[in-house]
Write a structure and sequence with these properties.
Elements lengths: L3 E2 L2 H4 L6 H12 L8 H10 L3 H8 L8 H9 L4 E6 L1 E3 L10 E3 L11 E7 L1 H18 L2
Parallel strand pairs: 1-5
Antiparallel strand pairs: 2-5, 3-4
Helix pairs in contact: 2-3, 2-6, 3-6
Length: about 140
């Protein structure tokens, strides 16, 4: 079975910045006939839901997205660069139980079993996201 991993190092590059929020708000502004902005407001609410937590706990100025990056890989894998590595899940150490271990340095004799995303074109990722929000907004008209 083909397995692809989109790790935090990648999802933490998909930051929902003020510029992104303005682009999303611009969707409703581009359709002056519409008074129905609920799709836009809900999208912004969902995208920024953990903003305060990420600021307080992790020191992020803008919240990152996680699941949408994995979905973007399914829709547009060309946005990502991948490397093949051996990956296992820690099952013995109580401190790191469940942690995903990626053999980046090829220390194991095990065969590579996972495709790991190592970079993402964040500009194109946001184009894809904003286009999806635009389509949802237009379907409510």
């Amino acid at each position: 079975i083909r397995v692809v991993m989109v790790p935090l190092e990648i999802t933490h590059t998909a930051l929902c910045t003020d510029e992104i929020i303005q682009r999303i708000r611009g969707i409703a502004q581009s359709d002056m006939k519409s008074q129905n902005t609920i799709v836009i407001e809900k999208a912004i609410e969902l995208l920024t839901y953990f903003a305060q937590t990420y600021k307080q706990v992790f020191g992020f100025d803008h919240p990152p997205l996680h699941d949408p990056c994995a979905v973007a890989y399914v829709i547009a894998p060309e946005l990502f660069s991948v490397e093949h590595h051996y990956v296992c899940v820690e099952m013995n150490n109580p401190v790191s139980y469940g942690q995903t271990i990626v053999d980046v340095w090829k220390q194991s004799s095990e065969k590579d079993n996972v495709e790991i995303c190592v970079s993402m074109d964040t500009e194109k990722f946001w184009d894809l996201m904003i286009d999806a929000i635009r389509k949802a907004f237009m379907s409510r008209q």
